[in-house]
Amino acid sequence: MSFDPADKVQDLQYFGEFGGVNPSISDSSTYTFLHAKTMMDTFEGNAEGCYLYSRHSSPSNLFLGEALAAMEGTETANVAASGMGAITPTLMQLCNNGDHIVSSRTIYGGSYAFLKNFIPKFGVNTTFVDITSLEKIEAAIQENTKVLFCEAVSNPLLEIADIREMAKIAKKYNLKLVVDNTFSPLSLSPGILGADVVLHSLTKFINGSSDTVGGVICGTQQFINSLRSVNDGASMLLGPVMDSLRSASVLKNLRTLHIRIKKHSENAMYLAKKFEEDGIKIIYPGLKSHPQHELYKSMYNEEYGFGGMLAFDVGSLKKADDLMELMQNRNLGYLAVSLGFYKTLFNAPGTGTSSEIPEEEQKKMGLSDGLIRMSIGLDNNIERTYQEMKKCMIEKGVL
């Protein structure tokens, strides 16, 4: 593929104010002006390169935004204080009272709760569909639909969105295709495949050290400018601003993302193959048994593999809890939400990260209490990890 997202990031050159190899951190909430007119021009958006107040923008946030836009192949980007701080302003900026959204039914629980329970208070309603069916997506579109929303790789069932075809549907009906790419940075490039807006929770793989909460909105200059408008910009007025110290930290970690993603993918593929050979029904897009395996292959940046997320069903919540507790006790990972850490993280999403989704909806989408979602870590000896995990599964009756 001619577009290499990691190369785009590494080609950026930032020097610090005093010649540092990292850009200097703008540790200020407000900025001074030598002339009053410059302040007025900055308020009106006519003074390029000037900074007013960190809720508007800061050098550190703009550095990180430029790097993430380069990674996703979009014109620009706006960083936010969390993943939800990126998702919610995006959808509120694109929709007005009386508008409609078509969303994947398998999405992060916080996104589901926002669409199902919160944004209807502002007159915006959502139809949730099986994102693997293009026919169902198109059938759900109404006259007032404004947005198609999905995750490139869904949380937690790892369903794959056909981004190219969804982009064609969006164009046909004059909709905006918004794709959350949190599970598959570098591996998939939704903006190159036709998405209008690409979102990430920076908290996860991109930062990679589970010490920072952040988000980003990648899109056109026009759309990002609308989010930053002092008069009616959702990001500006809702205020989910990222702290400069945190954005500087994420930018440093972004430089190693290509190395980490390759290892996450390599380890996840190894475990997925081994456990499938052992008779466990593993959900992993790198396996030929995954229903969208060929679709993923048709879209992915091969060098970065199929990602670090896998899932499997052990039959009951008790068995899932017992297995995860044992694996944690054996130091094979942590019983924790989130993903993208150097250590493997596992949880039962039906009662955790997807608990906002009603039980009857979970059943419809095939999300059971016994499902374990694993974010595979950067273990150096993955064969040893496999052997120890297998012992735990045998001990708890999973194998």
What is the radius of gyration? 21 Å
The appropriate CATH architecture of the largest domain is 3-Layer(aba) Sandwich
How many domains, as an integer? 2
> What is the H level of CATH, i.e. the homologous superfamily of the largest domain?
Type I PLP-dependent aspartate aminotransferase-like (Major domain)
Provide the spatial order of strands within the biggest beta sheet.
1-7-6-5-4-2-3
**Helicity range of the residues?**
25-40%
Report the total helices: 16
> How many angstroms does the end-to-end distance come to?
40 Å
Average pLDDT taken over every residue:
93
| Class derived from helix and strand content | alpha/beta
The top-level CATH class of the largest domain is: Alpha Beta
Oligomeric state of the chains in view: single chain
Order of helices and strands: HHHEHEHEHEHEHEEHHHHEHEHEEHEH
Instruction: Give the CA-based shape.
Output: globular
Quote the beta fraction.
Answer: 5-15%
CATH topology of the largest domain: Aspartate Aminotransferase, domain 2
The overall strand count is 12
Largest sheet report: 7 strands, mixed
Unreliable segments (pLDDT under 50, ≥5 consecutive)? none
Written account of the structure:
- This protein is of the alpha/beta class and 399 residues long.
- It folds into 2 domains: 5-254, Type I PLP-dependent aspartate aminotransferase-like (Major domain) (Aspartate Aminotransferase, domain 2, 3-Layer(aba) Sandwich), CATH 3.40.640; 258-395, Aspartate Aminotransferase, domain 1 (Alpha-Beta Complex).
- It contains 16 helices and 12 strands.
- It has helices at residues 5-10, 36-43, 59-72, 84-94, 109-118, 134-140, 163-172, 190-193, 221-228, 234-238, 244-254, 257-277, 293-299, 317-329, 359-365, 382-395, and strands spanning 76-80, 100-104, 125-129, 145-151, 176-180, 197-201, 215-219, 282-283, 309-313, 334-335, 345-347, 371-375.
- It has a 7-stranded mixed sheet, with helices on both faces. A 5-stranded mixed sheet has the order 8-9-12-11-10, with helices on one face.
- Helix 12 crosses helix 16 (382-395).
- The two termini are 40 Å apart.
- The model has no long low-confidence stretch (mean pLDDT 93).
